[in-house]
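Retro notes (design track)

What went well: tokenization of the new backbones is finally stable.
What didn't: we kept losing track of which sequence belonged to which structure.
Fix going forward: every design gets posted as structure first, then sequence, in one message. First example under the new rule, 196 residues:
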């Protein structure tokens, strides 16, 4: 069956290094016959920047955010994909706020079962991370990796990550480094193999 992956792009830069490297991963997926879409977190329209804690998603049988805006509509599409990749720079040792707006609204895609287990239409779909940073992995990119791996663990889905520390390139030029491009493509291939 036709497979597709969604990349939640967390950088405010339209042509930054994270997206350039994510494009390499998408190219590797395309070679495996897997399509990719990008959700540009910084360019979604929203009535509220993030979750307003109305808990309507938890009171409903349906999975989805009850706020009527672009952020909610983007999040509602995530279960249509075979894998969800967060492609983001690290900001202040964590997620950029633009990415976090999407992540917080993903609360609408989970419910808690009787034994506090997490139920989600994302079940069975790998969660992955492709992250860049100007700094090192330790106490920096690894924090993002751990943060994004926890929902994967709680939902019970496979997790894959690819970290690009010391990413000191002009915007968009990181993928011109053959070693970085190859690393991003390997990540794409590994993700493709998980869902093929
Ligand atoms: C507001 C801000 C905060 C940042 N914080 C960190 C940080 O905590 N750790 C780090 O390694 N790099 C940090 N950086 C650097 C970016 O993560 C890095 O330049 C990244 O590769 C940019 O990706 P992009 O080109 O896709 O936007 C920060 C950059 C900005 C603008």
């Amino acid at each position: 069956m036709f497979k597709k992956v969604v990349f939640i792009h967390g950088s405010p830069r339209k042509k930054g290094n994270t997206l350039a490297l994510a494009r390499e991963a998408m190219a590797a997926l395309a070679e495996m016959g897997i399509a990719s879409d990008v959700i540009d977190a910084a360019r979604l329209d929203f009535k509220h920047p993030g979750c307003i804690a109305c808990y309507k998603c938890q009171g409903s049988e349906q999975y989805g955010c009850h706020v009527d805006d672009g952020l909610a509509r983007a999040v509602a599409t995530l279960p249509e994909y075979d894998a969800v990749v967060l492609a983001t720079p690290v900001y202040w040792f964590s997620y950029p706020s633009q990415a976090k707006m999407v992540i917080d609204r993903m609360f609408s895609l989970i419910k808690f079962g009787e034994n506090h287990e997490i139920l989600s239409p994302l079940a069975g779909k790998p969660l992955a991370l492709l992250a860049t940073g100007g700094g090192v992995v330790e106490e920096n990119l690894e924090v993002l990796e751990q943060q994004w791996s926890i929902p994967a663990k709680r939902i019970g889905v496979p997790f894959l990550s690819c970290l690009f520390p010391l990413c000191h390139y002009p915007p968009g030029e990181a993928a011109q480094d053959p070693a970085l491009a190859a690393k991003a493509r390997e990540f794409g291939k590994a993700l493709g193999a998980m869902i093929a």
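Added context from the reviewer: The chain has one domain: 19-195.
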